[in-house]
Write a structure and sequence with these properties.
- By secondary structure, the chain is an alpha+beta fold.
- It has a domain of 78 residues: RRM (RNA recognition motif) domain (Alpha-Beta Plaits, 2-Layer Sandwich), CATH 3.30.70.330.
- It has a four-stranded antiparallel beta sheet, with helices on one face. It has a two-stranded antiparallel ribbon with strand order 4-5.
- Keywords: RNA-binding.
C-alpha cells in the first residue's frame, strides 16, 4: 500500500511541478507523442515487420511494427510489437486481430504495459 501511495505522490509531483501541464493532465501524454502499442505473440518464425505492419494497417496508421529477432538463428522469436498513432485504432485492432490467423499461426494481441518494450542497442545509443 505504501508503494502505491509513493507512486501516486511522484506522479502528482511531476504533474504539479511543471507549469506546462497545469491545465489538462491529458496534455502530458499528448506532448510526449503518446501512441498505443500492442504486444503480438504467437507469430510465425517467418513473419517479417512488413507483413506484421500490413496486417494491422487496416485498422489505422501503423507508426512502427517490430518483430523481435533471435540473433543466433536469424529468425523471429515469435512475438513483436505494433504501434498505432491513435489509441482507438489500437483498441479496434486488439479486439479484431486477437485469435486470428497470421502466416498460418494463431496470434494473440494484448495492450503493452508502459516500460515493457525491450530497447535495442541502437535505441540505447540514441539517448
Amino acid at each position: 500500500m505504501a508503494a502505491s501511495n509513493l507512486g501516486g505522490s511522484i506522479l502528482k509531483y511531476v504533474y504539479h511541478s511543471s507549469s506546462l501541464y497545469n491545465k489538462n493532465p491529458g496534455q502530458l501524454f499528448f506532448f510526449r507523442g503518446f501512441a498505443s502499442t500492442l504486444f503480438v505473440k504467437g507469430i510465425s518464425f517467418s513473419t517479417t515487420e512488413d507483413v506484421l505492419a500490413n496486417s494491422f494497417a487496416q485498422f489505422g496508421k501503423v507508426v512502427e511494427a517490430k518483430v523481435m529477432m533471435d540473433s543466433v538463428r536469424n529468425r523471429s522469436k515469435g512475438y513483436g510489437y505494433v504501434t498505432f498513432a491513435e489509441e482507438d485504432e489500437a483498441r479496434k485492432a486488439l479486439t479484431v486481430m486477437n485469435g486470428q490467423l497470421l502466416d498460418g499461426r494463431v496470434i494473440f494481441v494484448d495492450k503493452v504495459r508502459p516500460g515493457s518494450i525491450p530497447r535495442t542497442p541502437s535505441q540505447a545509443a540514441d539517448e
